[in-house]
Amino acid sequence: MVLAELGNQLSAALRNLNESTIVNEDTINTLLKEIGNALSKSDVSMSLIIQMRKNIKEKVKLDQIAAGLNKRKIIRKVVFEELIRLVDPGVPLWKPVKGKSNVVMFVGLQGAGKTTSVTKLAYYYKKKGWSTAIVCADTFRAGAFDQVRHNAAKGKIQYYGSDTEKDPVVVAKAGVDIFKKEGTEIIIVDTSGRHKQDSELFEEMKQIETAVKPDNVIFVMDSSIGQAAYEQATAFKNSVKVGSIIITKMDGNSKGGGALSGIAATGSPIIFIGTGEHLTDLDLFDPETFVNKLLGNGDIKGMLEKIKEVIPEDSSSLKEIAQGKFTLRSMQQQFQQILQLGPIDKFVQMIPGMSQMPQLQGNEGNLKLKAYINILDSLSDKELDGKKPITQKRILAIAQGAGRHPKEVLELLEQHKMFEKLIGGKVPGGMGNMGNLLSK
Ligand code: GDP
């Protein structure tokens, strides 16, 4: 998973807190040191880390916590909030308006992953039922239009560009005008990048911005830039009206923390992260979900989004979740549906507790899920519906019935418990009442 190492270290720090016999100033200092080290290793800037530590210290006043309250829980909650704050500028996200033409302009340095992300975003909206189109206004790089043509064909997306016109402003305006006339809902303009932030690039961007009057300007940045993220994003923001950010190449980049936190510090929200070269490798970025995933709490929101794609809205398990309940039967139904999604390694990472199991990558994830389904199939109706507790003796019998190791049965029950807690909102960052989410 994205930033897996950081996630493991943060989880370890919180585990140490849980296991400490007493909670005093020393415990907090040790926790803050461990969190600070973990963030610094993944490239988060020192000034942000210092600020975060200060915020946590200010929010957790041990001598003011009333007797009887769980200090560890309070500390965990504050840490959770501060981790979110690190990647969340707290401004509302831009949302396109259905039924009207929304013009989105992409900017960024060459090689950042602009053209790839343009196609991914067009495909993302197309899948959701919006009419989409791409305008290639990169007349600087030879082959840019061919790349758009090729990518757009893969996603069966309409596009516009020119092999002969050299003025990007003319191409951008012509393309946007054509698609606006056709009533296309999402019109994405891909602009050119340069190797460095040069004045010519910025001038060209400004002219295109004036010509097409975008509803949103998306700045695309490569995650490997690390701590330089803030400065680079600021340079772009000072030139055009950057509204949102996409960070690319978060797959396999253990140091993406610098880009994520640095960018958030500019005040522009990160809306998506790129997690691969394929059309569908674009994940919505939600700070709370991201931190939950990072800490191995799973990604219930993302999971429900995926589940909603394959499970009928009126299914009993979705209704149950909406009420904050989650039985083993819901788990069984959902795992069965998930298998229909095909390769599920990304999905497995959304399951609480599973994100930290490196052995579940690729096909292993599918096999694990099948094993879990076998186990769930061996439960009685009462056990599935939570009407009968599962005893030690039953665990052995279930394992035997499913042809699996008892340890796996325990593991599954443990995961179910975590799910249940998250869905019922019993952990910090849990989903609480899921009704809102499901009705979105
Ligand atoms: P542009 O110059 O900004 O338009 O960049 P491109 O879209 O041409 O991307 C540059 C390279 O990065 C290409 O080889 C892409 O396949 C690759 N790329 C883009 N986004 C991602 C991503 O999220 N993950 C990975 N692994 N590669 C990416």
From TrEMBL:
Pfam family of the protein (one): SRP54
Keyword terms: Cytoplasm, Endoplasmic reticulum, GTP-binding, Hydrolase, Nucleotide-binding, Ribonucleoprotein, RNA-binding, Signal recognition particle
Subcellular location: Cytoplasm; Endoplasmic reticulum
Catalytic reaction annotation: GTP + H2O = GDP + phosphate + H(+)
GO biological process, one term: SRP-dependent cotranslational protein targeting to membrane, translocation
Gene3D superfamilies: P-loop containing nucleotide triphosphate hydrolases (3.40.50.300), Signal recognition particle SRP54, nucleotide-binding domain (1.20.120.140), Signal recognition particle, SRP54 subunit, M-domain (1.10.260.30)
InterPro entries: AAA+_ATPase, P-loop_NTPase, Signal_recog_part_SRP54_M_sf, Signal_recog_particl_SRP54_hlx, Signal_recog_particle_SRP54_M, SRP/SRP_N, SRP54, SRP54_euk
SRP54-type proteins GTP-binding domain location: 269-282
Keyword tRNA processing listed: no
GO molecular function: 7S RNA binding; endoplasmic reticulum signal peptide binding; GTP binding; GTPase activity
Principal location class: cytoplasm
Domain commentary: The M domain binds the 7SL RNA in presence of SRP19 and binds the signal sequence of presecretory proteins. The NG domain, also named G domain, is a special guanosine triphosphatase (GTPase) domain, which binds GTP and forms a guanosine 5'-triphosphate (GTP)-dependent complex with a homologous NG domain in the SRP receptor subunit SRPRA. The two NG domains undergo cooperative rearrangements upon their assembly, which culminate in the reciprocal activation of the GTPase activity of one another. SRP receptor compaction upon binding with cargo-loaded SRP and GTPase rearrangement drive SRP-mediated cotranslational protein translocation into the ER.
Protein family membership: Belongs to the GTP-binding SRP family. SRP54 subfamily.
Entry function: Component of the signal recognition particle (SRP) complex, a ribonucleoprotein complex that mediates the cotranslational targeting of secretory and membrane proteins to the endoplasmic reticulum (ER).
Protein name: Signal recognition particle 54 kDa protein
Provenance organism: Dictyostelium purpureum (Slime mold)
Organism taxonomic ancestry: Eukaryota, Amoebozoa, Evosea, Eumycetozoa, Dictyostelia
